[in-house]
């Protein structure tokens, strides 16, 4: 039962404290990873660049996962597990960032909402209208529900604190290196594929959870008919099911790094408005509660 206690404590720490305001371990990890990339991402030939990317992935993740594994096995290791899960989770910060957009958007302060949105997405937000800002925010909330919450919970259930750390570091590297740009096309291949592999099962469980807690048939229909058209094999099911569960229309063309990308539509119904952002936050929160109950029950019954 100590694993269940660690799970509950880690989630409570995130709910009460949120992300550390100073000296966040992921900030240090990001700087470390950036240093590795500068040193190893120097070759042009595709095969060698991919090999350097694999080496960088191992050098970035292995020391921290090994440290987490050691911490989880010292006396009171369950407490270390709880802290490791807390560091890997981002549920409270996800809600805070989304509300920082929703509040000015609901008040008609479009410029302030665009500025807040630009802090959490990589697309160009300067030309978005009210519905565009709301849609981009919902996409971020739904996708990051998996990336910042449910993926970490899934791997914690399987491997404890080290599993949560492994997932969050892999997800961070994908966010840093997993771009199809000339700089990262080959070097970032290993990070992107590793994150895809770790995310495959959690993403589909997240999509199913969104469906269960929203418009079930609608969510499953959108997942089945729309997810495969999305460029990410894991974000597609999550966002299609989430949009269907909420009854809103997401996706469509978006501008990234100065170029327009033709993205398929996801979900069904009207384009979202500011009030839909809070609905998305509630969906993520309800899903987290469901997962915690189910994981604790499984751990208590020694199923996992």
Automatic annotation (TrEMBL):
It holds the Pfam family CobD_Cbib. Its main location: membrane. The chain crosses the membrane at residues 47-71, 148-170. The keyword Oxidoreductase does not apply. Keywords: Cell membrane, Cobalamin biosynthesis, Membrane, Transmembrane, Transmembrane helix. The keyword Cell membrane applies. It is a multi-pass membrane protein. It comes from the Bacteria. Pathway: Cofactor biosynthesis; adenosylcobalamin biosynthesis. It is found in: Cell membrane. InterPro entries: Cobalamin_biosynth_CobD/CbiB. Converts cobyric acid to cobinamide by the addition of aminopropanol on the F carboxylic group. Belongs to the CobD/CbiB family. NCBIfam families: cobal_cbiB. HAMAP family: CobD_CbiB (MF_00024). This is Cobalamin biosynthesis protein CobD. The gene is cbiB.
């Amino acid at each position: 039962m100590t694993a269940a206690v660690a799970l509950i404590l880690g989630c409570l720490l995130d709910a009460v404290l949120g992300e550390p305001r100073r000296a966040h371990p992921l900030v240090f990890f990001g700087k470390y990873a950036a240093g590795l990339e500068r040193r190893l991402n120097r070759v042009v030939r595709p095969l060698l660049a991919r090999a350097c990317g694999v080496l960088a992935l191992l050098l970035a993740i292995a020391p921290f996962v090994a440290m987490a594994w050691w911490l989880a096995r010292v006396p009171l290791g369950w407490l270390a597990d709880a802290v490791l899960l807390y560091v890997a989770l981002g549920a409270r910060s996800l809600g805070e960032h989304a509300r920082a957009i929703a509040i000015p958007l609901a008040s008609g302060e479009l410029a302030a909402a665009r500025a807040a949105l630009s802090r959490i997405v990589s697309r160009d937000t300067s030309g978005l209208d009210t519905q565009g800002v709301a849609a981009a925010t919902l996409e971020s909330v739904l996708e990051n529900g998996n990336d910042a919450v449910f993926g970490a919970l899934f791997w914690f259930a399987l491997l404890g604190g080290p599993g949560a750390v492994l997932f969050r570091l892999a997800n961070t590297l994908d966010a840093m290196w997993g771009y199809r740009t000339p700089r990262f096309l080959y070097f970032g291949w290993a990070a992107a594929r590793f994150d895809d592999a770790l995310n495959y099962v959690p993403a589909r469980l997240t999509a199913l959870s969104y469906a269960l807690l929203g418009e079930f048939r609608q969510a499953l229909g959108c997942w089945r008919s729309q997810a495969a058209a999305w460029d990410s094999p894991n974000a597609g099911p999550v966002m299609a099911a989430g949009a269907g569960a909420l009854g809103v229309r997401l996706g469509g063309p978006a501008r990234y790094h100065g170029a327009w990308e033709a993205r398929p539509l996801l979900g069904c119904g009207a384009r979202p408005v500011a009030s839909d952002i809070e609905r998305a936050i509630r969906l993520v929160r309800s899903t987290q509660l469901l997962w915690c109950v189910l994981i604790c029950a499984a751990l208590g019954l020694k199923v996992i």
